[in-house]
Amino acid sequence: MLCYLFGSTDGTLRGIANPFDRRRCEARIEYERGYARIWQNDATRSCETAEDLEEQKRLAHLSFATLRASNAELLKRPILLRGRGRDFCEPFKDWMPLDDYDDVGFPSDLATTPKFVLNDARKEYLAVRWHSPDGTARNVPDGYRSAFDEQMEYHTQALEANREDIAKHYGSPYGSWRGIPQARLAAANRYARLWLGRFESRCEFELALLRVTIDEMDAEELDRKADELIESIERQIEDVAQDILQNILDEQGATS
How many CA atoms lie within 13 A of 129 on its CB side? Predict the structure, then answer.
């Protein structure tokens, strides 16, 4: 279905004529795979017996069957899907079930405290956005350094605000993680683990989309320059032809 959304004529990646839309579709597929991995790891985290694992597999099969049936309905008229891929290129407007708060935690989640720090994908995104040639902060050009630093600070503070919101939801009076009641700490740690995993997956998707857009713009610029060069050559050829014609006419006028 995703391939159709990104313009495929036959429901496959190779059926997407535009190479940049094909890459966007590939990025979206990887994004959804990442989400599935987060879900799978969480679903199997509490499995202590083979029976527990089989039950999770059964639930996964049911969920997949429901999704497959829903997609089958949409695929009855695939022409209506084509060209809507752009709607699937806004990762931070997506909602998925793991975004919901959960009041159930696992004992293993008590062993670690979540760390709300900017992931590598978000750092690289900001560096690329501010013209770092290799996607690293140290190579952001001096002319963009101030804007880059401001964006880094903004995203760091936004992450901290999310941490405080999550802590308050789980009972911390002032938004500190240490203020979460012990009875709700496992659930809070579990949700934070899922939230951070999902956030990283989204950031990786957004970085992939940014690189596709940059490559697409570069290709368009090359095409524009090629067109200008062709037009320039055509004008030169036309000017030479006009000069030759004028010389012939002048010679004919001189001999008549």
Answer: 19
By the 8 A CB rule, do 58 and 119 touch?
Answer: no
Three-state SS annotation for 14-59? HHCCCHHHHHHHHHHHHHHHHHHHHHHHHHHHCCCCHHHHHHHHHH
* Number of residues that make up the chain: 256
Q: Is 11 helix (H, G, I), strand (E, B) or coil?
A: coil
- Cα–Cα distance, 183 to 227 (Å, whole number): 67
Q: Quote the CA–CA distance of 58 and 256 in Å, as a whole number.
A: 99
CA distances from 30 to 25, 26, 184 (A): 9, 6, 33
Amino acid letter for position 149:
D
Query: In which residue are the tokens 């013209």 written?
Result: 131
Q: What is the pTM of this model?
A: 0.79
Please, what is the end-to-end C-alpha distance for the chain in angstroms? 76
**Count of CB atoms within 10 A of residue 154's CB?**
11
Read off the pLDDT band of 202 (50, 70, 90).
very high
pLDDT in tens, 54-94: 877 777 766 666 666 666 666 667 666 666 677 788 888 87
Quick one: how many helices (H) and strands (E) in the chain?
A: 6, 0
- Chain-centroid distance of CA 232 in Å reads 39
Long-range contacts: 134-142, Cβ < 8 Å, 24+?
none
Q: Which two tokens stand for residue 171?
A: 């009972």
